[in-house]
Amino acid sequence: MKKQWFIIALVLLVHCLAIPSAVGFAAEKQPTVDNDQIIADCTTAIAENPYDALAYYKRGKAYFVQKQYDLALKDYNRVIAAAYLERGYLYEKEGEADKAIEQYQLSIYNDPTYEVAYDHRGFMYNKTGRYDLAIIDCTKAIELNPKFPAGYLNKGTAYEKQHLYKEAIETYRSMLENVPLEDVHHRDTAIKRIQALGGNV
Fold first, then answer.
1. Is the distance from CB of 78 to CB of 111 less than 8 angstroms?
2. What residues contact residue 100 under an 8 Å CB cut-off, 6+ apart?
3. pLDDT tens for each residue of 50-90
4. Quick one: pLDDT band at residue 31, thresholds 50, 70, 90?
5. Which of helix, strand or coil describes residue 163?
6. Which positions ≥6 away from 10 have C-beta within 8 Å?
7. Do 189 and 177 share a structural domain?
8. Residues 96 and 125 both lie in one domain
9. Given 52, 78, 113, which residue is the final one in a domain?
10. Same domain, 36 and 81
11. Cα 103 from Cα 121, distance rounded (Å)
């Protein structure tokens, strides 16, 4: 099953990016391309937006041409994981929880460092009443990226659903300690939840 979905993801990737199937070989026939500059530019883009799948793809392609295969594979895996994430989100919007969770699982399988996939699966576990699993996934998302606000909010929600209000408040407070001040929307949400649960900010 994983092999089947892996092939589907690759086909989806090729289709969405409109690239030739022999991308690696095509790239090697373009010696005028400055792959060092591509890597530098894409690394900057990823630093500004860690979820820029196209930047990961372009950087992976440049790494491939330079025969840095381990780095290329890592970037390609993130692109594939992003494709599965989008498929999961689609199923989520269609109300197909189990299919969404399956896609998020495949996203994690391809890139175990992708905090968004853990958070989305945690959200779906919350939605389907599997709160313990939601806490595990959201904890992992936070571990991978302590500045990722959705992980805290979904984890706090899982605690609230189980009437574990002290743990929920602690989770929201931890979010306020770690999420940047510029993220006013998510910080305000955490503050409101703390106050609603009778806690002090």
1. yes
2. 88, 89, 91, 92, 120, 124
3. 999 999 999 999 999 999 999 999 999 999 999 999 999 99
4. low
5. coil
6. 80
7. yes
8. no
9. 113
10. yes
11. 9
